[in-house]
Hints:
By secondary structure, this protein is of the alpha+beta class. Helix content is 22%, strand content 46%.
Amino acid sequence: xxxxxxxxxxxxxxxxxxxxxxxxxxxxxxxxxxxxxxxxxxxxxxxxxxxxxxxxxxxxxxxxxxxxxxxxxxxxxxxxxxxxxxxxxxxxxxxxxxxxxxxxxxxxxxxxxxxxxxxxxxxxxxxxxxxxxxxx
Length: 136
């Protein structure tokens, strides 16, 4: 009887340990609470300071369509958040999909890149980036 209780306790400890290993918050988990509390602005003066552009569209080794782009910050302060809408078009210029991208902590005078998937590759697709809002 004591052996069964010991095995059950050991099994429970392993389950709890695995739960915390996979679902528990660790030091490597990024804290995005500060970014989520920022006020996003659509003020044209602020939007002029950030440039969003698509640099390349391609299919990866698995046939998945990808959009690679860059967000540039020409201001003298960190852009905490840039909201971008990516619109993809087929070879006949018909809109296929719209996706929103969030790029965080763009350094002053610097840039950050993004690389997103848009679905199954279709020959001749293109993409455009549109800046929707920023937070400084």
